[in-house]
Structure formats: structure tokens, C-alpha cells
Write the C-alpha cells for this entry.
Amino acid sequence: MSTSTPTPSVVPAKTSPGWQRKLSHLLGPLALLGPPGVWLLLLLVVPTLLILQLSFVPGIRPGQPMDGFGLGNYLNIFQPIYLQVIWRSVFFALGSTVLTLLLGFPVAYWIALMAPKRWQNLLLVGFILPLWTSSLLRAYAWITILRPTGVLNSFLSTLGLPTLDLLNRSGAVFIGMSYSFLPYMVLVLYASLEKLDRRLLEAAADLGASAPQTFWKVTVPQTLPGIAAGCLLVFIASLGDFVVPELLGGASSMTVSRLIYNQFLGATRNWGLGSSLSMVLILAVSISIALLIRYGDRDPESFS
Amino acid sequence: MYLPILILAFYSFNASRFSATWEGFSLRWYSTLFNDSRIFAALQDSLAVAICAVGVSAVLGTLMAVGLARYRFWGKGLYRGVSYLPLIIPDIAIAVATLVFLASFAIPLSLWTIVASHIVFCLAYVAVVVSTRLSGLNPHLEEAALDLGATPTQAFLKVLLPELMPAIVSGCLLAFVLSMDDLLISSFTAGGGANTLPMEIFSRVRTGVKPDINALSVVLILGSGVLAFVAEYIRYRGDQRRSV
């Protein structure tokens, strides 16, 4: 083995001048990383910088030149009506995170530690398979179930129970979001629980710990990075979600993403406000990611 | 997990227009669906976008993953960070940014602007899946090929690429599904010229339950079920081969 890093250096060193060798060293990275890099730069980095710029232009509307500079758009966000929207988005995201954790942990625990070994993979795949279906249709399915004349209420009334009016309220958003993002939570928690050292559980039991004690003092601390990663993943996903609040939430549950949508495609067009709201959203997500990297699982794969 | 999907499927066979009560089995909504030219046009647009975007992303994403695994250079951390961004930033923010970008350069919105914007996130997903596979590969195989006189291009095409193929395919399937599912980015970059399937579905279900959309869901869910099966099978085969 001549080199430890396989650099494409087939050019004989003695016959070629130094600059040519240097060029051939540059050529490889450039050919591999150049095209995708340019694409990301053009359609991701430049656009993000553009909305950053736009967010400082007060009250800009489509077609207008970018004149002036000011914090007007950001100050606008602090109006009670928009603050309420932001607060509601965070509330939805936090609630969904807690719900998916409460629902997802027992499932992941069961699959990772209690289900028969050869069924584990199949169960896990079964749980994440709905992710392959359209998120739009999964949200739509809940309309069928939750609307006043829907499946749930027909079921309740045949049992003689009072009907529930859930659609177009916060409750429906929580249900829809938890349903959408539960597979992510289960996946991340499973990855964490599977690595759990079972001998520690046995040791705890041998030393006289009760089952709840073992759970709270051994299992939970050991899987804390996984729990943090799963929670942040669901939090981020539901914070930026548009489909569920739009379809299930009704007019009363305006969220940040719906507000941004309206600033660009809806009736009230204000690109400046929309851009500053986008920047706030990006900032919120970045902070969450920074927290995840700092305190959570240091495995970048847990994002995907 | 499956109950809502099953209920959706169940009511697609209901004869009643207001599908709360069961009024007997009927394929009426399926025939409505298959005679709906708007749905078919939208499906065509969606497939065109997804196939083009995934095709380009397969090449670019693989190049990026290999490049990031192989070279060390100044700014690599930043490059890698940017490559993760499409997975992290909410769709709405990407969609808005792309719209503003296109508007400020006066690029007319069309099917191709949707393709271009879909490549951004498809590329990122393909790269992540391929990177995972790359980190589990034996780096000496490619070195051996080089030592035995293969040119770097030969070594890449004949040794590395076949090894990466399962990851590339499953990355592409994932990207395909995400591209077919995307509503926001398409809505913002479509303009008047194009209409993808999620956009069509969204504009219909916004106003309530439509039985023909139930029928459409069943067709789409069966389609994505087949894709998911293929993807899991490829992953399973890949895992097995690696463990041998």
C-alpha cells in the first residue's frame, strides 16, 4: 500500500512541472464537489441571503425595488397578533413533541427490548412504512375521521356517547402532527434503546432495584441523548409544518408557516414581513440544532 | 398507525357522496378518478419533476458524498453544513427563499424551476444515504484497483460505484417519494404553468372531503407501498451482503 489516502496522482512526478501536478490534485475535488456545490450555492445559500436582505426592507411588496433599510419588519413581528401566532406554533410543536414522546417511547422500548429478535426489524419497518405515503393524504385521512359527521363521531354516537367537535381546533392539530411525526420519534428512540447495555439492567435488578427504579435510574439516563434527538427532530418538523395546521387546524390555528405562506401566496402580500418571519423560523430551528449537537447524540445520521 | 389509512381506503368504496354513512360498495369514485384529466395532468407533472430531479440528484449527490469522504480542504466543515441544510430548514423557508431568488433574477416560473428547486433537497438526501454506506466500505478496495493500474476513473466506475449502488438506489427512492410528496416548494416555484399532484390534491381537500380523493389516495398509497417494499428489500440485501 503506497499511500493511505487515494489521491488521483497518476501523473509521473518527474516529467510534469509542479503546477500541473497541483492542478491534477485540484481537479478531483473540483469535479466531484464543484457541481453540487454550485447548485446548493445558487439555489440555497444565495436565496437565503436574499430573504435575509429582504427582511430588512420595510413593507416591500412583489415587483418593488429593494429600497431602504430598517428593522421595521422585525419590529412588526412583535405586534401582539403575530406574537400570538408564534406562541401558538411553539405550543403546537411542544405539545406534539411531548405526545410523540409519550406514545413513541413505549413502542420503541417494546420493539427494542421485549419483542422477539427476529421480529424487531419487521416491526420497525412496519412502523416507519407510513412515512412513505403522502403526508398530505395522511393529514386528509384525519379530516375523514374527525369532522363532525366523521368516523369518530358516528362511532361515538352508536355507543351512545356524546360526539366530539375536534376538527378545525387545536386538538386536531395535535393529533395530526403527532401522527405524522411519531415514526421519526420511534426510529430515533429505537436506535438509542437498541444500543442500551442490557447487562446494566440485569445488574440493577440483581442489586435490588425495582422495575420503576431501574427504568428511571438506568434506562432513561442511558437513552437521554436519543430522547433529546428524537424530541428536537419532532419539534423542528412540527414547528415548520404547514399541511397539518392548514388542513386540520381551521382558521383559528394560524401558525408561523401558514402566516409566511399568506405573506407570499395569500391575500395579504408583504414580502418583507414574510422574509423576516422566515428568518425567525430558520433561527429557531438553528438554535434547536445547535442544542442537539451540543447536548444530544453526536451522530449526524440521526437527522435523517 | 395504519388505521387512518385503512379508513381512507374503506370509504373510497362507499357509494355515498357524503361519506359518513356506509351506503354500499361501489367503484364509482374510481371511475370518476380515472376520467379526471386534471388529476392525470397533475400526475404527469409530478412524475416529470420527480424523475428529472432524482436523475440529476443521483449523480450530484453521489459525487458530493464521495468528494466529501475523500478530500480534505479548507471550508469542508462549511460545505458539509450547507449540504445538511435542506434536511433541516423547514420547507416553507426554502420555498420562500427560492421564490424570492427566482423573482429577483426575473426567472419565469415553470416546471423547470420546480425541478431545479427539488434537486436541492433530493441531492441532500441522496448524499446522506450514500455517505452512510461509504463510511462502512473498505477503502482499500479502491486503492488496490489503483495499485493494479486502474485509472482513477476506472477505479471509480468499476469498483466504487457498484459497491455504492444499493445506497444510491435507496437514496433515489427516498428522494423520489419526497419529491412526489412536496407541496410547499412546488407551490412557490410553479407559477401558473405547472400543477403537481400534491398541489391539485391540496386545492381540492382544502374545501372538505372528496370521495374521489379517497380513491386517489388508495392508488397512491399502493404505489408508494410498492416503492417502499423495493427500498426496504434493497436495504435488506445490502445489509446481508455487508454482514457476509
Chain A has one domain: 73-303. Chain A touches chain B through 79 residues (CB under 8 Å).
